[in-house]
Design goal:
The complex is a heterodimer of chains A (135) and B (79). Chain A is an alpha+beta fold and 135 residues long. Chain A has 4 helices and 5 strands; from the N terminus they run E-H-H-H-E-E-H-E-E. In chain A, helix 1 crosses helix 3. Chain B is globular, with a radius of gyration of 11 Å. Classes of the chains: A alpha+beta (135), B mainly alpha (79).
Chain lengths: 135, 79
């Protein structure tokens, strides 16, 4: 067996994004529910409430963009709501894809998508990793 | 008229690093500072200004990539 034979048959991908929290607060102020419902899923809106709502939503937007960087959609249309950032029981977040986002992952064999988000009053960021099988 | 409105909206919501009234029609707006989040605001402002709704199939990066591309999208929506 050579070293090449033992190479894993997958490659990692990584994506990250940074969002200014005030930008999200401004969008909510200007466009209201239209902004919220076009950008976030009902689950995301239900889990992002309270005093830090804009921070939490900004982190989820950053996560969606980071997922897009992993999915590498080219010019495929990917509505923001087709990437859902779900709250996990252990306190972190998971990613659930639907529609074109799910199709992109399936077609490219992108699996094991993991997300980490963080936010503070001014900025929110997210990092996403995944593996691509068979390459 | 449509192009003027597009440029006004880009100036108000696009967060571009340059004057939106002076941008070349084919210039890459992402290269000029348009972020994915700002593109959402641009889309919503365009919907308000032209009384249209961008369908999911138009929510791709190229739709908002230039003044020309936005104009073409609005034409597709009947503006």
């Amino acid at each position: 067996m050579t070293l090449d034979d033992r190479r894993p048959t997958w490659t990692p991908r990584i994506g990250c994004d940074l969002v200014t929290v005030q930008d999200v607060a401004d969008s909510i102020e200007i466009f209201g529910d239209r902004y919220l419902t076009r950008t976030f899923t009902p689950h995301e809106l239900e889990t992002c409430t309270g005093a830090h709502r804009s921070q939490r939503l900004a982190a989820r937007f950053a996560a969606k963009e980071a997922v897009l960087k992993v999915l590498r959609p080219g010019d495929t249309a990917v509505p923001w709501r087709s990437i859902e950032i779900r709250r996990a029981e252990w306190g972190g977040c998971t990613v659930e894809l639907s529609g074109n986002a799910a199709a992109l992952a399936r077609d490219q064999q992108v699996t094991d998508i993991q997300v980490s988000i963080s936010h503070e009053p001014r900025y929110a960021l997210a990092t996403v990793t995944a593996v691509v099988a068979g390459t | 008229m449509t192009e003027q409105a597009i440029r006004k909206i880009l100036g108000e919501h696009g967060r571009l690093s340059v004057d939106s009234t002076a941008v070349e029609r084919s210039a890459d707006l992402y290269e000029l500072g348009l972020t994915s989040h700002a593109s959402v605001n641009v889309m919503l402002a365009l919907e308000d200004a032209f009384d249209v709704e961008f369908p999911d199939e138009l929510l791709r990066k190229s739709t908002f990539a230039s003044v020309d591309a936005i104009h073409a999208a609005l034409t597709e929506l009947g503006v």
